[in-house]
Amino acid sequence: MIRAFALAAIGIVAPLSAAAHQLVVFASVDCEAVTVEAKFSNGKVAQLGDVRVLDGLNNLVLRLKLERDGTARVPLADVDHTGGLVIEVETGDHDNYWIVTPEDIARKCGS
To answer: Could you tell me if 89 and 25 are in contact, meaning their C-beta atoms sit under 8 angstroms apart?
Structure first.
């Protein structure tokens, strides 16, 4: 009985601890740039990481480093965003992405 309880407890705690380290990526658009934010699901800011920006055809168009505040800024004038953008963030052991659609950009630019 104790062994079954211990196994059940491990089964509950293991997924919770893994989820605590999930990387959350968010990107918002204004008419000049995409602002990328990366943090862990526990709220801690991802202070070190690489940001890759891909165009709508999955071609790498820009590489950036995360700032110490967990953000990066992608100037829209520096990338072909007509097909949208995929923003990938990698912090070593964790990675995630955000898709910015052409509609997201058009909505913010009043197009």
So the answer is: yes
Sort strands 33-40 and 23-29 into parallel, antiparallel or unpaired. antiparallel
Name the strand (E) or helix (H) holding 10. Answer: helix 2-19
What string of pLDDT tens digits covers the 111 residues of the chain?
A: 554 444 444 444 444 444 446 999 999 999 899 999 999 999 999 999 999 999 999 999 999 999 999 999 999 999 999 999 999 999 988 999 999 999 999 997 875
3-state secondary structure of 32: coil
Does 23-109 carry CATH code 2.40.50.220? no
Structure tokens at 81: 């965003």
Domain borders along the chain are: 23-109
Decide: residue 36, CB within 10 A, 0-12 exposed, 13-18 middle, 19+ buried. Answer: buried
